Amino acid sequence: MGTSGSVAGSSPDVEYEVLCDDVGPFLRRYALDDTGALVPVDADLDGAPYTVTGTVTRCAPPSAEVNPVLDGTLQRQTGVGTVTIPAGARSVTLIVYSGNPTAAIGGGTAVTVAAGSSLTWAVDRGGPEGESLQDAYVFTGIAGSDFLVSSVREV
């Protein structure tokens, strides 16, 4: 609980505590009235009056962020061949050095990618409730192609 002290002749001591009910966190202020009786007053976290709903408990500490284990792949394809990145990756990058390979996403129509191109698809948040790329990526080289594909996914 946080405390705000007082000096003789000024307002009485007031203590605050963040508690939780069935809705979420709220602020409870404890003060002594003129007779010395303890008077609790509830407010939302912005200070507006609050009515408790359900059971009041001490709030659980926030859960620590889980750092997921990541696995990366890197494959260089020269000439004819295919590199497939299955759905569920957090990022996929294609760098084309020469030739005109194609890229197809999620079984869609393959599109030619020009030499000198660099393309990346990515999500910024992973973890148990995080994001991932929902489609598979297929990169196909033809004679004269030279390209690099990298990916990262949670394991």
What would you say this structure looks like, in words?
It is built from no helices and 13 strands. With 155 residues, the protein is mostly beta strands. Strands 1, 2, 3, 4 and 5 form a 5-stranded antiparallel sheet that branches. The protein starts with a strand and ends with a strand.
Task: Set down the secondary structure blueprint.
Blueprint: E1 2-4, E2 14-20, E3 25-32, E4 38-43, E5 57-58, E6 70-78, E7 81-85, E8 91-98, E9 102-105, E10 111-112, E11 118-122, E12 137-141, E13 146-154
Antiparallel strand pairs: 1-2, 2-3, 2-5, 3-4, 6-13, 7-12, 8-11, 8-13, 9-10, 9-12
Number of helices: 0
Shape: rod-shaped
| Main structural class | mainly beta
Helix-strand sequence: EEEEEEEEEEEEE
**Mean of the pLDDT scores?**
88
For the biggest sheet, the summary is:
5 strands, antiparallel
The residue fraction in helices comes out at under 10%
Beta content: over 45%
Low-confidence stretches: 1-9
Distance between the amino and carboxyl termini: 41 Å
Number of strands: 13
Taking Cα atoms only, what radius of gyration do you get, to the nearest Å? 29 Å
